[in-house]
Amino acid sequence: MDVGTVLSAAQTLFAAVQSSELKKTCSILGYKSQLDALQVTVSTISTVLRSAEAKQELSDEEIIYVEDLKDAIYEADDLLDEFVTLVEHKKLTEGDKKMRLFSVFKELGVAYKMSSGVEKIKKKLDAIAYNNQFRFKLDPEPTGKGRPESDSCVNAVDIVGREGDLEKIVGMLLDSNVQHDVSFLTIVGLGGLGKTALAQLVYNDARVTSTFSLRLWTCVSDQDKKEPDVKEILGKILASATGRKHEDSTMDRVQSQLREKLANHKYLLVLDDVWTEKRNQWCGLVKYFIGGQKGSRIVVTTRSQKTAKIIGDSSMYELQGLSEENSWRLFERMAFGLNQVNFPDHDLVEMGREIVNVCAHVPLSLRVVGSLLYGQGKSRWSSFQKMGLASIREGENDIMPILKWSYHYLESPLKSCFCYCALFPKDFEIEKEMLISLWMAQGYIVPLDKSQSIEDAGEEYFSILLRRCFFQDIKKDVFGGIDTFKIHDLMHDMAQSVTGKEIYATNTTGGHLDKKVRHLSVASRRRYGEYFFGKNYIRSYVHVDWDVFLFGEVDLFFLEPLVTNCMCLRALDLSWLKIKRLPCSIGKLLHLRYLDLSYNADLEMLPKSITKLYNLQTFKLTGCEKLKELPKDLSKLVNLRVLDIDDCYRLTYMPRGLGKLSSLHRLSNFIVGGKGRNLSWKQWFYGLEDLKALEKLKGSLEIQIRWPKNAKSIVKEDCRRDGLYLRSKEHLNGIWFNFTHEESDGRVDDEVARRLMEELQPHSNLKRFKMQEYHGARMPGWATLLPNLLQLCLFNCDELECLPFLGNLCNLKVLKLLALEKLEYIEENSPSADSSSTPTPQLLCAKTLSYLPSLRVLSLNNLPELKGWRRSLAGVGNDHLNQNLVVSRSNNEAVWQSLPCLSQLKSLEIIGCPKLTCIPLCPSLEWLYIIKSNERLNEKYIMKGMRS
């Protein structure tokens, strides 16, 4: 039982009680004094809980006392949230007049219900708080203890001191004396030593990747199971081998596919975090790995000595703690930072040396404690030295006391945020944005002030937890932002231990749901609705689809009780459940803030009642391929902050009024075009006005331009606007324009296409620009005036003849051109080229020294008319270009210098370019792929020693 999460709930309740809107409404209805009294009570409870939190270890009786407080706090929060929701919803539909508001609530009896409810909950809280038989102090909240400062993350992924271990294990894997077709190697050691990290180093070592033609990685994590789930493990391995899940596959089918996949390879399989301690169970698993070419290896990581001995003593590698020197290197890096300007304080160094010794040279302990003390003063170091080290010594080799000390120093909201991660299975890859949205739904995130958005506050929370080493194994997106992460299994164990019954994660098929459970995750669709046949108080239901053996669909028989019996839900994840219909009763979930219906491919319509979810903040519909339309009154969801409709292929228009969603921060797709066959320009164009009003959009946005059937006629109308539809959206980092043509009366006029694109100029902060099915002959003028652009992709633009000069895109890293049927040259001319005369090689050379200096990847695919890079070079020694471009620089120095030089290009792909005879110089090229193109190009690169 953790007091910190209860204190966080109390602080959330206190913020709700202080709401100006709630106070205003209570004043109108005549019971402001009752609300003020409740505010005093909640404040008292917060101080009681703060005192209880300071004790760290509570007796059984004290735990019961705190749990009673928690239940009462949740009940009060539900009551106030329901009332505020009803008030705000009525104001939205009925207006904000005082007398009208009073009459509405008098008619509904809401005022009486609210008044009696507040009085009832206050008495319950008073009875618990003022009883205080355990004499928790009622001291006021200490001053000067704000949220920890958010700073740049200390690099926690570098591995220190494992070079020798890496060499030994790689040597064992590559030992040519091993006679078996498939042999095992076990890495065994205490939790936190870095077994998984070391296995990852081995897995990605260049010598290993060149030796094994197939590499597979699977996390088993079967500690909590009586016996390993063979079907599940084999399914994971097969998914690792093929890169996709195998739903609706039988056990026999998976076995057959796996053996077929392994048979033709010398493979390396890593089974991470294995706990199987019975020989018969281990033999029942490994029999499926028979096959593969001679020299195939299976690496197992485990904390269990018994597991290692079952696999075989001769193949065991026992991982030890770091040396004293490497332990200090790691701790110093975490506690004092990577780039130390000044030497650390002598006293801190002395305390740090003692801490390193007590941490028993365990990397995870050193990281956690170092990150805990990073940036702290001597008083915090001294406090940890006196109290924290004592509890660590008592735990001997147990790392858990260290982890709990790091957890203890988190602020209460951060404790709730971390503990919420216990909903997900071990080794689960968690999406950062999804998690922050779930935190928002539970009210865990509190912005510093009105100037900070709740999303930015959530990013700050995440950064603090990452720096403190609660998160690891981060993966980044194309912009360098964190996309996904994982939690160390020991951190996961701690999260489960401190949350008690409040969070329940299961992959079983049924059972009784304790009334104390507030957050539930289920990792299976089998008997989906069994937990919901009875009233409960869960605030989260998260479906975790990691079982690849799933059958059938979830129907209304299961969904109805979920809604009717779970009225306290704040977050509901119904993704990947093959849902065809939703119950209309879903609109009764007044508290709901997060709804995920993603990848229910057969879902065609949404019930109208979904627009009654006034509090909804995050709405995900990704992959609902058959969804025909969004609700007409979607604009009523005024608190919506995230709307994800990616891969909803049958959506053809956006409902009107989306511009009213002033809180919307993330919108995956926007469709320009209306419902109907023959539209006026004004009717067709109205959606852009809504898009313009969405001022807070961030991230990436796909804009689908759906030309109407009377596309040609709209050229006659004036389509000029102010061009600010996108230019003011400085936080959008990626835009994809996707043009779609109905069965029209002809191709859209080039002038119309270009005029529209000029009106859609993005902000100069844009980093990624994609365009598909554009039928203009020229790119819009702003396309090469984006100084921060990192990626430019053009697909199926079959009228495009040439691109403008690209040399201004100094940060461009990726350029991809696909299926541009009329493109003859990548660029028309350089800005200084004189079209009336042939440019001199010296001039062109000077202009190309810094040409696209950041470009790393170039892909030219299916460009049948492409002849060269720049039209202005067409007259510069064409014969020599065709014959001697790559073969010899000395033969024609002038021609060589006349070409642009892509000095940093690493990867070049040329597919289906039969007329291409010359390309820019690429002195740093590492990877080349040429196929279905001019044979001379291929011959020239082979002569230069490049592999094609």
Automatic annotation (TrEMBL):
Gene3D superfamilies: 1.20.5.4130, Helical domain of apoptotic protease-activating factors, P-loop containing nucleotide triphosphate hydrolases, Ribonuclease Inhibitor, Winged helix-like DNA-binding domain superfamily/Winged helix DNA-binding domain. Keywords: ATP-binding, Nucleotide-binding, Plant defense, Repeat. Residues 561-821 form the Disease resistance R13L4/SHOC-2-like LRR domain. Pfam families: LRR_14 (PF23598), NB-ARC (PF00931), Rx_N (PF18052), WHD_DRP (PF23559). Residues 423-495 form the Disease resistance protein winged helix domain. SUPFAM superfamilies: L domain-like, P-loop containing nucleoside triphosphate hydrolases. Residues 9-98 form the Disease resistance N-terminal domain. InterPro entries: Apaf_helical (IPR042197), LRR_dom_sf (IPR032675), LRR_R13L4/SHOC2-like (IPR055414), NB-ARC (IPR002182), P-loop_NTPase (IPR027417), RX-like_CC (IPR038005), Rx_N (IPR041118), WH-like_DNA-bd_sf (IPR036388). It comes from the Eukaryota. Residues 163-336 form the NB-ARC domain. PANTHER family: DISEASE RESISTANCE PROTEIN RGA3, PLANT BROAD-SPECTRUM MILDEW RESISTANCE PROTEIN RPW8. This is Disease resistance protein RGA3.
